Amino acid sequence: MEKMLENIGKEIELKGWLHGIRGSNKFQFLTFRTSGQLIQVIAEKEILGEEVFKIVKSLTQETSISIKGIILANEKANLGWEIQLRQIEIISPSSDYPITPKEHGTDFLFSHRHLWLRSKKQLVILRVRSELSFQIRNFFHQKKYTNIDTPILTGSVGESAGTLFSTDYFDLGKAYLAQTGQLYLETAIFAHEKVYCFGPTFRAEKSKTRRHLTEFWMVEAETAFLENEQNIQFQDEFVRTVVQKTVEACKLDLEILERDTTKLLSQVATAFQVIDYSNAIEHLKSSGFSIEWGEDINAEGENILTEKLGGAIFIKNYPRAIKAFYMKQNPNDQKTVLCSDLIAPDGVGEIIGGSEREVDFDKIVARIQEEDLPLEGYSWYLDLRKYGSVPHSGWGLGLERLVAWVCGLPHVRECIPFPRMMYRIFP
Amino acid sequence: MEKMLENIGKEIELKGWLHGIRGSNKFQFLTFRTSGQLIQVIAEKEILGEEVFKIVKSLTQETSISIKGIILANEKANLGWEIQLRQIEIISPSSDYPITPKEHGTDFLFSHRHLWLRSKKQLVILRVRSELSFQIRNFFHQKKYTNIDTPILTGSVGESAGTLFSTDYFDLGKAYLAQTGQLYLETAIFAHEKVYCFGPTFRAEKSKTRRHLTEFWMVEAETAFLENEQNIQFQDEFVRTVVQKTVEACKLDLEILERDTTKLLSQVATAFQVIDYSNAIEHLKSSGFSIEWGEDINAEGENILTEKLGGAIFIKNYPRAIKAFYMKQNPNDQKTVLCSDLIAPDGVGEIIGGSEREVDFDKIVARIQEEDLPLEGYSWYLDLRKYGSVPHSGWGLGLERLVAWVCGLPHVRECIPFPRMMYRIFP
């Protein structure tokens, strides 16, 4: 499709779908969807003849068609060119297509997600997601990280036992759907040192916010001999690189979404700011936001901070009591842990959580017990602190939130092909 | 590590693990694991002094250490160079590491999978898997396929309802873990035309063969306007490309596995043979194998065919009765469907199943009913045959079987970081 402007005047044959149609008794303007693009096709009665023109005029939305026509330059067409129709063949009809050009409710659209995917914006969002996914893998491949696919079916539990989906597993009792691959990734650093996983993740949370899904894709990295500060730098390089490369590759797609890419590129042009949790609390208090040291920072608080500081920010060294058991205690301040959250601007909020991991056997056992987690389920994880433990750090990024930021969308549910929410498992 | 031979005589500082140690009262030979490689390190009493040499000699397996030394050329070392130790620091101790150089039983090793990953062969197998995964994604990215992540949690069912894991899903009843992303991929071809997914897949099969896992990774592709014969060509190009590129990138790894890469490369040098199912049955009968037209070809039959025909083979046009409901009826022979299985040689067996899809609404409804599948669960899938249906084809490849072939392994269970089998969910 890129080289059409070099082929003005030539004949072309294409297969695709009738995305939309409008016109008069002499001209019909077809929006034709092919290879994931929308192309303007002009049908003129004088050229086609009465009979063919009548067929064109009666075409219904989503009919699959095969067309022949001449490529014409047209500055007003979205691509700079259009097709003058010469021949048309119907592949398969379509009647009463449920998604019409009129406005539909959100619930209706998600109930017709299998068809809604064909819509202009939805098509483009998933193409951006696809590119972002590839750039993520490419980043790690170039840095010689080994891709370790961590299991979904697990006997032990990651972060919190209360929000797990479970299934019967033959004669072995229950298996749980993994909330994170981190603990498994940690086993692999002893062999590969630099590892990542990227796959679906599950949270049985009764949450209905615009930032939560019950099934979402997460990319997680784990690196041996890496300390928290270096881990933050690594995340910074990662996010800015994959966003820059995706914007570059998806320029036309982001234009369709009316995303201000100049602003986005300026947001990822230089290293993100890094502030201390305690510092963040002071900022919030001085903005009149009601919060005390020791409390978690909610979505509203995150927004205030990114607006005040003008971009994405890392907040580091949170209170130990509100973070996961595996985070390393801060040697300079025992109330906090060596961790970071990356907060994206424009209302997107937290996109990455990362930390240096606790490597002291006794400290980690104490934390598992404090959290009331079943110690026996972690026996294999604790082995990693027995046999040649090393300093290491890692992080996890939620793909849909990154897609939301890049595309400029308020809700993650359009950022995944088939969103799963508390009240939605269909189609 | 690649450029060490250019740095002979220079000092180097590395962190890693003591993989193994042997030697005398004057020399100790350490196998040092760093950056996923095994390096020979020579400790000489005369150079290190009595005290440090004593520490080295007492080092135990898997102790994490930081070393300083001089790079020396040594043709006998596996990498062509080794390190002469000058300084050593223990990062963290390791005592009674369970996996010793002696032989261990399979069950013991899989129960210690979190540590076994550090072993020479296991490390290399997962690096090959990682490269293969990347080459798969790279292939599709270059061909402008859109990556569509299909859901794991599903309300409807793919191939057979009897072998599904299920979980309670809030107030919506049961959700099932997807056995395939195909039906969802089919929805996306109407928007993107060329799509693929690549993620974990689940089969609650009570199967204990060396080719089955309950959780495995599958890559599936779906292409609009593609017929069965072209679909076979596409699979051929795909498999041969990703295997060639992986062998190229993992030469040293495959040497460690003692894989005959010359043989493997010759097996993927030219297009695979394509034979008809009926033809395959004749071949088998003439080999004295007991089978009748209409029966499925089991692992033994597959082996006979690949040996007789000397390489990987596509078997096409199977009997309709033994294949899935969504496969297109063969217009030239109504008893068969337009499909293909790719059988890999060397005892690996079926690695891909593919087909052209049935697009006729009435035929597909009849097949769903014949198979006793719940029609209402497929309402959204049937919509695809109502609104601008087009000819299309697709296929799915099991990653672990491809890894087994490339690495020359008899069993898929070593081809995934944490294998899930009927009797194994831990660690």
Question: Over the alpha carbons, how many angstroms does the gyration radius of chain A reach?
Answer: 26 Å
The tally of domains of chain A stands at: 2
Shape estimate of chain A: elongated
CATH superfamily of the largest domain in chain A: Bira Bifunctional Protein, Domain 2
* CATH first level of the largest domain in chain A: Alpha Beta
Largest interface: A-B, 89 and 89 residues
Let me know the number of strands of chain A: 16
CATH topology of the largest domain in chain A: BirA Bifunctional Protein, domain 2
The CATH architecture classification of the largest domain in chain A is 2-Layer Sandwich
Enumerate how many helices of chain A there are, as a single number.
14
Beta-strand proportion of chain A: 25-35%
In terms of per-residue confidence, which ranges of chain A show pLDDT below 50 for 5 or more consecutive residues? Answer: none
Main sheet specs of chain A: 8 strands, mixed
- Reading the helices and strands of chain A in chain order gives EEEHHEEHHHEEEEHEEHHHEHHEEEHHEH
Average of per-residue pLDDT values of chain A: 96
Query: Percent range for helical residues of chain A?
Result: 25-40%
